[in-house]
Amino acid sequence: MAQASKATTSRALFEILGAYKHFGGAIALNHADFTLRAGEIHALLGENGAGKSTLLKVLAGVHTLDGGTITLDGKPFIQGSPRMAMSQGVTVIYQEPSLFPDLTLAENVFIGRQLRNKTGINWSEMRAQAKALFDELGVDLDPSRIARGLSIADQQVVEIAKALSLDAQIILMDEPTAALTKSEVNRLMLVMRRLQEKGKSVVFVSHRLDEVFAVCDQITVMRDGSTVAQSKVSDSTINDVIKWMVGRELKDLYPKMESKIGDVALEVNGLSSASEFANISLKVRHGEIVALAGLVGSGRSEVARAIFGIDSYDSGSVKLNGKILPGGKPGISVASGLALVPEDRRQQGLFMQASVSRNIATEMLDKLAKFGLVSQRSENSLTQEWGKKLQIKYPNPKAPVDQLSGGNQQKTVLAKWFATNPDVLIVDEPTRGIDVQTKAEFHRQLSQAAASGKAILMISSELPEVLGMADRIYVMHEGRLVKELSRKDATQELIMTAATGQGRGES
Amino acid sequence: MIQKIAAFQTTNFKINAKTLLRRRESGILMVLVLVSVATTLINPRFISGYGLSDLLLNTSMVGCLAVGLTPVVIARHIDLSIASATGFSAFLTAHIIVGHGWGVVPAFFVGACVGAIIGAVNGVLVAGLRLPSLVVTLGALYIIRGIDYQFANNKQFTAEKLPTDLMHLSQDKIYGVPYLFCLVLLLALFGVWWMRFTRFGRDLYAIGSNPPAADIVGIKVFSRTFFAFVWCGTLAGIAGVMYLSIYAIVDSAAFLNQELIVVTAVVIGGVNIFGGLGTIVGALLGAVLLRVLIGALVALGVAQFWQQAINGLLLLIAIGIDRILSRRSETKIERIRDERKMEIS
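YS: structure for the whole thing
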């Protein structure tokens, strides 16, 4: 509290008024305001696509505003060059820093401006200074080891040390905690506090509100390219922030619809694969959403891959509408009405360089083809149809899917499979890394699909999602199904005990 | 394991018995000694005093080229035109100095200039137009050789026409070390300082280690890469003059098809073909090791075919070791990531 009030009275460093920026037809920033004061840790919040990345990139010198003003410490801020941003005291720590893997940490800190004496680079001095910087941040790192093999958390520390050595006054952190463990997050927070003690200002972007409330002084919330709230952390609650971010109440999430549960669509019997999973038996009925819960690494994705036929299995069987599927033949699975939305959309779900329409038409080429040729028009009309149904936001059907936001990429994967009109849809971590709004839309789509009679097997590590969406829940632990719960019996506690292997005796 | 690799790859020069032992250079040195001792035991004539100077003289050219190529490979590029540049430089230098009646020093100057020009052309194409160096220098390999054929037009220069000083140079030595190899050592010494103690050299490591990041941190990628190619070409040109001195005869086929020997030497010497890693000392040792092996195989009476096959095998082993080491560190990283994921969920 004292900290927060101290921060608000200190002088303003960045003052952004009426920032406006568009990329082609898409408006990324629409009269956004932002004030950063000296010595504060400032959370920049908003769903994906709310404009916070764009704002951060403007401050980092990557983008230039189309309208609005930015002043830094009272003077106009020179935009459009990362080098200029750096020389004005602004640095960015990206989620996945790009260090030089073959160079030592000391050299990574001083890259391009290595310390020199009369005969050339002064290695011992550079090591000593790097060590001093790491110590200042309270992190124990050996400056003479190479960067290859360093954890992401440590890589971020190296980048922060570099920012310090450059005498940066403002440090922008773009979702630094997304790939960190809890203990690493705690360490990063300590580092952030150290920076604050040294009088630096930090802009912190994170989707994890508990982190924001633990470490930040000030909050700016963005939505649809505009600033919707600016508040002291001490004056707001997590619920306020969520309301600002989504613009509506949380109860709109998990729009579970009633659906008529029919015959068994997918039946898995005693599926086993050496060292991956053993004796998996499960059923998914038409109209039903069944969740496969468990910890990451418990073998859920492996089961999904085996059912779909990507990996082969040692024993057991998979039946789709009563017909046995041959193992290890994904092509036949697709033809029989099975679809898989994989966990990693960038690696497994999409052709990132190819256009939106190419991606959506991937599984439909045979049906779209006339005399063996697929016209672009037919691909585009398919894209328009599904783009509208799933509300995918894309600049045009020819745009590479790479340019879409994470949520829209995921919708593209879904559109690809919905287009094949599958009976059974397996979705693996469908909403990981997607903002709240898109998540809700995604859930609505799944619900609708179930209501229309499709059977859905959903792998998810998010308990609220599991509880909110599933009619039935299977829990996996170390390659085995350890529990089955109905919607009305399921609680977070029950699932967690089973997933961590404590409830084994009961089932 | 990670620490072990770190010790292998770190450019830390602190004297430390453990790290020293784990350095790639020490490994090559050990293999060198092993091969030499074993061969000498079987054929005592192998490492007599005469054999050693001969060995160094024979390593001069490939050594010089390896020293030249190393910065290019460290910057994640390749120069396949080096042997053509060497051959062309040898012929053109002979042509110019014979015409003017020039001696040793002008000969090296002319050779270096010829090589530098070739390197500059490669450099502009690769660094300026950002064309892949493999393709550019492969093209240069044929173009330069073609010009060489055209220009030489079946002519050749022999010892009678070439300056006698130059002919003697390859025979002269200090304490058994041939002058030509001393020159290579001088160039290598400069190279070591350049690559280790100047920002220029460190930038080349950075460029080879992570090219996009090099752009982001504002490294002058163009000028660094360009001059790496000029350096490589210059040393190829100097190697051409060495060729004149050693073989005392030159025609358009001089040093034909020798580029891959140099690449092999560099890679065996621990320079990562994907850039970012390696030292000039290592590359030079790689050249010596290659030569010693050839010498050993000859001394042991192994047929020519097997000599080449064994070179190839050595190359595969060298690359294999690099791969295994880096794969191990990658698996370790993956494991750490998995553990982290577990913790998150």
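YS: worth flagging: Residues 2-99+150-246 of chain A form a domain with the Rossmann fold fold (CATH 3.40.50.300).
IM: good catch. Also Residues 19 and 68 of chain A are 4 Å apart (CA to CA).
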